[in-house]
Write a structure and sequence with these properties.
CATH class of the largest domain: Mainly Beta
Strand content: 35-45%
CATH superfamily of the largest domain: Cupredoxins -  blue copper proteins
Number of strands: 17
CATH topology of the largest domain: Immunoglobulin-like
Number of helices: 1
Shape: globular
Number of domains: 2
Structural class: mainly beta
Strand order of the largest sheet: 6-12-11-8-9
């Protein structure tokens, strides 16, 4: 009986293509993105997302996310979601809040409450949604709605990892409320073939101060 042999590359490629067609991708890779300012310092809480060249099939389950309220602040300060995501707004603070937004992608109002008093809201249009509280003027948060399931936010070292990206071409983009739109870097085009990739992006221009309760460089007028 002949001994078994390793699968030849041509056969392995054919099997991979078959798997791609049946299960949506066997050559998934991760994209590691680093975002720095004009001085090379890392920037935290930057939305990083990859827009595929070809349309992505909708996930069978509707995506969900949570924008919490703690210590008179929105948590997280910047929340990135895919278009069509249902976002819950629990109030786990010790005081009541009255959450609202006047932004075009999603204008809404959640009257004074604590706990889980309101049902989730569906964010079905891409764009920037600025959040405020009618009781606490210093509260400010952002929901960034993107037309892609591939996104992340940077940590305190300015790094973000977007995992499970199928093979193909992508435009990598970033956004932060601390930068003016004209200071954001242009898209970076990458092609993934199953191997992880690293990308570095620089935001030029003066950044607004990080937001904290009691005042910052951020305001409703920026977006």
């Amino acid at each position: 009986m002949p001994t078994s042999r390793a699968i030849r590359p041509s056969v392995q490629s054919a099997l991979c293509l078959l798997t791609l067609g049946m299960a949506g991708g066997c050559a998934a890779a991760a994209l590691d993105v680093t975002v720095v300012d004009e001085h090379g310092a890392p920037i935290e809480l930057v939305a990083v997302y990859a827009v595929p060249d070809k349309p992505v099939a909708s996930a069978p389950a509707k995506p969900t996310a949570v924008m919490d309220q703690k210590h008179k602040a929105f948590v997280p300060h910047v929340l990135v979601v895919q278009t069509g995501t249902s976002v819950d707004f629990p109030n786990n603070d010790t005081v009541s809040h009255h959450v609202y937004s006047f932004s075009d992608p999603k204008s809404f109002e959640l009257p004074l409450y604590k706990g889980d008093a309101h049902p989730p809201l569906v964010f079905d249009k891409p764009g920037i949604v600025v959040l405020g509280c009618n009781i606490h003027d210093d509260m400010l948060g952002y929901i960034y709605v993107v037309d892609t399931p591939y996104f992340a936010t940077t940590d305190d070292s300015g790094k973000a990892r977007i995992a499970a990206l199928p093979a193909g071409g992508y435009g990598v983009r970033v956004w932060t409320p601390r930068a003016r739109p004209g200071d954001l870097p242009p898209d970076v085009t990458v092609t993934l073939d199953g191997a992880d990739r690293g990308v570095a992006l620089q935001i030029k221009g003066k950044l607004a101060a990080e937001h904290d309760q009691g005042g910052s460089g951020l305001s409703w007028q920026r977006y």
